[in-house]
Automatic annotation (TrEMBL):
UniProt KW keywords: Glycosidase, Hydrolase
Matches recorded under InterPro entries: GH, GH_1_N_CS, Glyco_hydro_1, Glyco_hydro_1_AS
Endpoints of the signal sequence: none
Pfam families xref list: Glyco_hydro_1 (PF00232)
Family membership: Belongs to the glycosyl hydrolase 1 family.
Keyword Hydrolase (UniProt): yes
Keyword Hydrolase: yes
Catalytic residues identified in the record: E372 (nucleophile)
Lineage top rank: taxon: Bacteria
Name the UniProt record assigns to this protein: 6-phospho-beta-glucosidase
Taxonomic placement: Bacteria, Bacillati, Bacillota, Bacilli, Lactobacillales
PROSITE patterns xref list: GLYCOSYL_HYDROL_F1_1, GLYCOSYL_HYDROL_F1_2
Length: 477
């Protein structure tokens, strides 16, 4: 059977990790700009400290990124050379509405993305656009408290109306919020949340999450009204939780951990708050700020497809004592003794991708789209500047094979695959450049040194062959 003939092969990026140009084209400042590299990144990302501007003590990698803002034509040409059918990118909210609450959009920002989309179309590349990939204008955070404030829904509505109207006919595939469940783990990065002393953090987080969920349903409604061709997806940081042992206590812990992730997608795909979530929130005294019409909006305007990132499976234990943990995509987990790990401690589990795909598809019965998957690694160019990244090829090939098994053997409906960081960019978790994911090497280090020259890696030519054969040939030769 194989993958569908119109399978959307490509790569994925985020505005705040590659564009740079933070002070170009009338752009305003956003939460993702002020995340420094170094030990203060996590406290800032988590909303534990107020950090709303640049200072001289820190280096801010998002200021320049890889200067894609000024080099997008060169980059898209390279993607086209690989044969991309789609390119997943995100909109920097503060390019369109620099402060977030203006009545009128910034024309320079709108024109920039129009140019990018037209450049994609020139090569037959379908843009897949994330409306909000962690971006929240700093002004909205200072004046309104970010997504904790219901008014932010109206500002987001203005943003999406502007985008859907301006780019009608240029963009068909949209994602409302990137990794919406990350709000639980990195609240400032995920939703512009900063906490006050003694505040009930969980109440604030779920309040903000509710506002994002309502905004997502509203965006879905507006997208379908403006252009019935529009396809709207949600986006989950996925990865199945395995029980640490067959002990029923561990099995329950894994089920509960999965549910905490799926909660958001349950609302976006099924259209209502799941009973398990309502019970848990009620037990913890957390109130969901339902306003008139919210429930009807959520119920009526569910997403067309489910997109997700997958880097690793996870493990949950019901034992109270601490177990050895491992790093992961924002979520730490109990270490799995059966798996190897990347240089950053993320465990590698291709079969887990097939398991995760089946889990999500069984749950929602909507088309799936893998919009992030990849290996962060230190790449050492040889004297010619060439990177022989066989380790990346091995990682991606094994995951693509597992993905094909989910489609061919299990019957999962899959729209496409965009590997993460198709060109080297700034890591969201650490702020590093040396943690590279791309098929294209970018000459820049953690602290901004380098020429920014682009050089295809060995994986570039490998991925080109994978796309040419619609995934039939994943061999490394």
């Amino acid at each position: 059977m194989g993958l569908r003939k119109d399978f959307l092969w490509g790569g994925a990026t985020a505005a705040n990790q590659l564009e740079g140009g933070y002070n170009q084209g009338g752009r305003g400042l956003a939460n993702v700009d002020v995340l420094p590299i170094g030990e203060d990144r996590n406290p800032t990302r988590n909303g534990d400290v107020k950090h709303f501007d640049f200072d001289d003590e820190h280096f801010y990698p998002a200021k320049v990124g890889i200067d894609h803002y000024n080099r997008y034509k060169e980059d898209i040409a390279l993607f086209a050379e690989m044969g991309f059918k789609t390119y997943r990118l995100s909109i920097a909210w503060s390019r369109i509405f620099p402060k977030g609450d203006e009545e009128e959009p910034n024309e320079e920002g709108l024109q920039f993305y129009e140019n990018v989309f037209k450049e994609c179309r020139k090569y037959g590349i379908e843009p897949l656009v994330t409306i909000t990939h962690f971006d929240c204008p700093i002004h909205l955070i200072k004046e309104y408290g970010g997504w904790r404030n219901r008014q932010t829904i109206a500002f987001y509505e203005r943003l999406v109306r502007t985008l859907f109207t301006r780019y009608k006919g240029l963009v068909k595939y949209w994602l409302t919020f990137n990794e919406i469940n990350v709000i639980l783990h990195a609240p400032f990065m995920g939703a512009g949340l900063v906490f006050e002393e003694g505040e009930n953090k969980k109440q604030v987080i779920y309040q903000a999450a509710h506002h994002e969920l309502v905004a997502s349903a509203l965006a879905t409604k507006i997208a379908h009204e403006i252009d019935p061709e529009n396809q709207i997806g949600c986006m989950l940081a996925a990865g199945k939780f395995y029980p640490d042992t067959p002990h029923p206590r561990d099995v329950l812990a894994a089920q509960q951990a999965d549910r905490r992730n799926y909660f958001f997608i349950d609302v976006q795909s099924r259209g209502e708050y799941p009973s398990y979530a309502l019970k848990e929130l009620e037990r913890e005294g957390i109130e969901i700020p339902f306003a008139e019409g919210d429930k009807e909006l959520l119920k009526k305007h569910t997403v067309d497809f489910i997109s997700f990132s997958y880097y690793s499976s996870r493990v949950a234990s019901g034992e109270p004592q601490s177990k050895e943990e491992t790093e992961g995509n924002v979520v730490r987990s109990v270490k799995n003794p059966h798996l190897e790990a990347s240089e950053w401690g993320w465990q590698i589990d291709p079969l887990g991708l097939r398991i995760t795909m089946n889990d999500i598809y069984d749950r929602y019965q909507k088309p799936l789209f893998i919009v992030e998957n990849g290996l962060g690694a230190v790449d050492e160019p040889n004297e010619n500047g060439y990177v022989e990244d066989d380790y990346r090829i091995d990682y991606l090939a094994s995951h693509i094979e597992a993905m094909k098994d989910a489609v061919e053997l299990d019957g999962v409906d899959l729209m496409g695959y965009t590997s993460w960081g198709c060109i080297d960019l700034v890591s969201a978790s650490t702020g590093e450049m040396k943690k590279r994911y791309g098929y294209i090497y970018v000459d820049r280090d953690n602290y901004g040194n380098g020429t920014l020259k682009r050089t295809p890696k060995k994986s570039f030519y490998w991925y080109k062959k994978v796309i040419e054969t619609n995934g039939e040939d994943t061999s490394n030769d």
